[in-house]
Amino acid sequence: MDAAAALLLVLLLATAIASPSVYAQQTNNVGCITSERDALLSFRAGIRSDPRNLLSSWDGQDCCQWSGIRCSNRTGHVVKLDLRNNLFLDDIFRSWYSENPHGMRGNISSSLVALNHLESLDLSGNYLGGVGVPIPRFLASFQSLVYLNLSCMDFDGKVPPQLGNLSRLVYLVIDNIWNPNRYRSMLHIEDISWLLRLRLLRFLDISGVDLSTIGNWIQAVNMLPNLRALRLRNCELVLPHMPILHSNLTSLEMLDLTDSGFYTINPAYWFWNVGTIRHLDLTNNEISEAFPDAMGNMTSLEVLRLGGNNLTGVKLKVLENLCNLRVLTLWSNLINQDISQFLEGLPRCAWSKIELLDMSCTNLTGEIPKWINQWTDLSILQLSSNMLEGSVPLEIFMLGKLKQLYLDGNYFNGSISEEHLATLVNLEELDLSYNSLHMMISSNWIPPFQLHWAYFAGCKMGPHFPLWLKGQRDVIYLDISDAGIVDNLPDWFWSVFSNVIYLNISFNQISGMLPGTLEFMSSAVIFDLNSNNLTGTLPQLPRKLAELDISRNSLSGPLPQNFGAPLLEELLLSENSINGTIPIYICKLQLLVLNLAKNFLVGHLPRCSEETTKPSRSIAALILHDNNLSGEFPSFLESCSQLVLLDLAYNNFVGELPTWLADKLPDLSYLRLGHNKFSGSIPVQLTQLGHLQYVDLAYNRISGSIPRTLANLKAMAQETQSLSNPLVWRYERPANPDTNDSPKYDDSLAVVMKGQDLDYTRNIIYMVGLDLSCNNLVGEIPDELTSLVALTMLNISHNQLSGRIPEKVGLLQSLESLDLSSNELSGEIPPGLSDITMLSRLNLSYNNLSGRIPSGNQLQSLVDPESSYIGNNYLCGPPLSRTCSEPDATGHDIEEHQQHEAKYFYLGLAAGFFFGLWLVFIIFLFRSCAGSARSGAVPSCWTRLPQGLALQLRRG
């Protein structure tokens, strides 16, 4: 929330909670009411967890002295109960993984109805609800209530219309946006008429409450004449066909309609005529129209937020009378203007008043004008992800009030020196990432500012480590990745940045040994240290750490039996020299991604028992290729129902593939088991995996035939599909709406494609392939294979497959690589093969194929096309030098010729066999009669021979 909005809210709240009652810090001689004390103690009994110990003071007789309690100085009745968790939003915005560590947990006891003089109730930020737990109806019994805040409490179900009985209510907040179960259940309102009874209401916030069934919500709020602030963020609002032309909201100062699904800003809509509005927020809608002229009449407007829409025709002249404008956000709209032209179009009367300007992702071009130093009040400037160029002007660094400067993702060049930064004494956030900037700052320079967020990714800061960072002890987000640093990590590094939440030093050549423990970095959530020269063993990790990448370094030794970080979700340690076995501690983590590929790990995977396994394992990617792991297919995966990617390739796994894959791993999309020693047949159940789009079983001992049920692989059989990338890594770039979550490109799924090893990460969702090569498969290629029209790669080479190539192979129009080599395939090459326009690699070599090679531009454009057909002695025609015998020769003629040759071959074989058998008989006969022949007598056995043959033998 910007300063302007915060100030406005403070003023509104100050007015809203004004009450004739006098709250007492001490109750003088008026003691606590016994029944009310008992009610509060009953409430305390319903609280299971109190991390901030707010209720620890709830002891003793005088409840008016307890924390969060205020009593009337006159009557002694409890008039205020304030147990808000004021750290809730800090926790949410500080970390994506916040589990509301400071909030209470439990339920709200109905005993509170005894506090019938209560005027102010604030339990916000405490999880006192849950799925199926609605806002308690008994809260409507507090007839004196002026202030009610139930935001961020994890309530569910219908908002009780009984709240309309609180006729004295001035302030009502039931904001449900940060409900942790919001996508499973959410608060909703079925009838909004109860709002009409809250005539005194000045502040109303029902953000995140479903109003999709309410068609008259505008009429309802229009009947609240005292309303000064209205927040309806993400309420699924339905716009009426006929806009209200007149508004009764003559006091309205703040209107927030963020994420409301608006596609139009009809100039007749009611809020354009409310001249008192100072804060208008239409962020994250679908507005594509130009600014209505009516906007120019909103001269009181100080805050205008239109980011995250589809605005294209921005007419800045409409804004020329908005002289009070202090905040303007237009991020993620297609402004498509030169930045000088755009800035000149903003109201000149507001140049010296504008405090925040956010133009990130708006296709701004050109150079930042030097006259930007006239914007003297500017404290936040966000120009991320545009097409700005040139050097960063020195004048921008003359803006002494600047606190946040985001210039990342542009085409700036040149250098940044101490002279640029010397006057920015208030600077807290600086992002110069992804430009061609050179940080020319001396090692002994002491900055006048203390950065909290420091982003220099892709800037040249090296080769030496930037020592000027040593004094920046307040940094909580640090990114110096790909900064050309070739140096040792300074000794002070880990202590100076001990408070970081996000740390990225990846893609440098930073050396040094990791410390034995990083547990002292208690706030750390993300570490990205990949692609450096760090050594040592995996240290003890910070407790809150959620994502760790130390891949492509020089870590060694075994993994610790317990390395901490119980909240760890992504652990990437590939391409190191880690040895030993995988510890069973892995089973205790709730990992989403585990990558230990290309190490020296040995032994079996841990047997995760029920005692060591998390109740609901949510791992999405398990990558263990290129190790020396052994054993059978991991049985613990039966409990990993959300697994998307499994890579066990290049190990020593044995045994048959399990039949439970489809039942236990329904989301499995990528399966790499190549280069192991798996045996048995391909389970038919494998083809029941509807999301399976990449299968690698190459170089195993798989036998049997290819299942005909392959057609069940829906992800391979449909050209359009729901795509998701399991390798998602969160790069925190708070000011840039386009780069919060990005694929983790430098961790990859290696596949064999077009005869070479390729790494897939960014495009993994588009990789659809089947590799069954180098096994012992027999039988024919099933025709059903041609129904897998989304395949980009098919490799079933080096098996013992026979029969013909399926006639409809031409249906596989997405194929880029096809390898059927080294089998026993026969018959003609189907002519439809030449119709596969995407095909760039084809290998049909070493089979028994025959006939004319199909002609077609695609087959002629293959690289080294002749090698695709070698080892097939009866193929003819281009690109082979062997010409077909006749221009109209057909495969049938060639097959007939082959059949005649085979007939003569087998006749010759039979004759040879008969002659050989006869010769053996004669030799045997000769030897048996040899003794008689030597004595000169005619052996009796000769008398049974033909007369001519006997005579010849005798003479011999």
Your description of this structure?
This protein has 956 residues and is an alpha/beta fold. It is 12% helix and 21% strand. It is built from 13 helices and 57 strands. It has a 31-stranded mixed beta sheet, covered by helices on one side. A 14-stranded parallel beta sheet has the order 28-30-32-34-36-38-40-42-44-50-52-54-56-57, with helices on one face. Strand 16, helix 5 and strand 17 form a beta-alpha-beta unit. The longest helix is centred in the last third of the chain and has 38 residues. The protein is globular, with a radius of gyration of 39 Å. The C terminus is likely disordered.
Number of helices: 13
First and last CA, distance: 120 Å
**Portion in strands:** 15-25%
- Counting DSSP E segments of at least 2 residues, the number of strands comes to 57
Low-confidence stretches: 10-29, 887-898, 929-956
The portion of residues assigned to helices is: 10-25%
Principal-axis shape: globular
Structural class label: alpha/beta
Mean pLDDT, as a whole number? 85
Our Rg estimate from Cα atoms comes to 39 Å
Q: Note the main sheet.
A: 31 strands, mixed
